[in-house]
Amino acid sequence: QEYYEELIQSKKHDGIRVNYKGDHGKGVCANKDFAEGDLILKDQILVGAQHSLNKIDCVVCSYCFRFIGSVEFQIGHRLYFQSIASSIGCSSERHCHGSDVGSSTCSSGVTKEKSTTLPEEVIESLITGDVSLPFSDHFPLPEIIACQGCEEERYCSQSCADSDWESYHSLLCAGPNTEPPRRSALHKFVEHANETNDIFLVAAKAITFTMLRYKKLKRQNDFQNKSAESNFSLLMEAWKPLSMGFKKRWWDYVALPEDVDASDEDSFRQEIRDLAFTSLQLLKDAIFDAECAPCILFGSHKTWFKLSYHE
Q: How many CA atoms lie within 13 Å of 245's alpha carbon, on the beta-carbon side?
C-alpha cells in the first residue's frame, strides 16, 4: 500500500487511491468526483513489447508504442509483407506446446487465393513517401528514429530512444558495436523466443529493467556494503515496481491447449517450464554482468527464476 501511495503522490494524482479486497484483489478507487475529460492517472509502461506477428501489420515506437512514420509508410509496410506472404502462399499459425510453443510458420496470414498484390513500384513509393494519399496530412505521425546501434528498434522521438536505452535496450542491443560473443548470444536468445514463445522477450525486458535499475540505485546510494544479503535487498528494491504486478508462474497457469489431453497436462507444463529455463540460460549467456553476480540473478536462485519468467 505504501508503494502505491508514493507512486500516486509522485504523479500528483491525489484524486485516486489503491484499495485491496481479498475477493477481488487490488483496485483503483476515486477520492473525489471526476468530470468528463479529467485526467485520472498517467503513468509509463514498465515492460512491454510489440507482438512479433503484429510487427507485420504496423510500425510503432519500441518504447511508447505510438504509431510512427506516416500513413503512407504504414500502409506500404503492411502491403510489402503481405506481398511476400502471398508470393509463397503461407499462413500464420501459433501453438502453445511442444517444439512450436508460440511459433509462427509465416509472418502473415495472407494466402495467394485471398490477396491481390500491388505493383512493387507502388508499394515502394508508399514506403519512401513519394506518394501522398488523400487526407493523410490530417493524421501526421512522428518521424522514425532508429537505434544507432542495431537500427532494428525504432522510436517516435530521441527521448523515447534514450529512455529505452537506459531502461532495457543497452543490454539487449545486438548492433555491430556489441561485442561479437554477446551479439551472437543475443541472436540465439531472440531466435529461441521467436521459435517458441515471444513472452520470453518481455521477460528479458523485465530482467534488464531490474538489472539496470539495480545499478542505478547502487550509484545513487553510493552503496558500499558488499554482502550478498545487502546486495539482494537492493535488488528487491530495484524489482519492486514489477513485483507489484507479479501473480503466478506462467507455466503453472497457462491455459491447456485444446489438442493436449488432460492426462498429459503435467508433461505439457514441464515442457514449457523447460523452455523457460532454456530461454533464461540463453539470456544469461548474453547479458550476464559481474556487478550483478553477488545478487545471484541467474542459475540456481529459484526466487529470481520464478519472478522473472511469469505472465
A: 10
Query: What is the grid cell recorded at 61?
Result: 515506437
Residue spans of the domains in the chain: they are: 1-43, 54-163, 179-308
pLDDT at residue 306 tops 70: no
User: What is the model's pLDDT at position 25?
Assistant: 77
User: Phi and psi dihedrals of 27, rounded to 5?
Assistant: -150, 150
Joined together, the cell numbers standing for residue 8 give 500516486
Dihedral (C-alpha) 101, 105, 110, 113: value to the nearest 10 degrees? -130
- Ramachandran angles phi, psi of 8, nearest 5°: -65, -40
- Output the CA angle 94-81-77, nearest 5 degrees: 120
**Residues 4, 7, 11, 15, Cα dihedral to 10°:** 20
pLDDT bin (cut points 50, 70, 90) of residue 222 is low
In angstroms, the CA 193 to CA 190 distance is 5
Q: What is d(CA 170, CA 212) in angstroms, rounded to the nearest whole number?
A: 9
Comparing 91-105, 200-214, 221-235, the range with the smallest average pLDDT is 91-105
Closest CA to 109 of 90, 96, 94, 95: 90
| Gap between the terminal Cα atoms of the chain | 22
Q: Which three-class secondary structure string do you get for the chain?
A: CHHHHHHHHHCCCCCEEEEEECCCEEEEEECCCCCCCCCCCCCCCCCCCCCCCHHHHCCECCCCCCECCCHHHHHHHHHHHHHHHHHHCCCCCCECCHHHECCCCCCCCCCHHHCCCCCHHHHHHHHHCCCCCCCHHHCCCCCCEECCCCCCCEECCHHHHHHHHHHHHHHHCCCCCCCHHHHHHHHHHHHHHHHCCCHHHHHHHHHHHHHHHHHHHHHHCCCCCCCHHHHHHHHHHHHHHHHCCCCCEHHHHCCCCCCCCHHHHHHHHHHHHHHHHHHHHHHHHHHCCHHHHHHCCCCCCHHHHHHHCEC
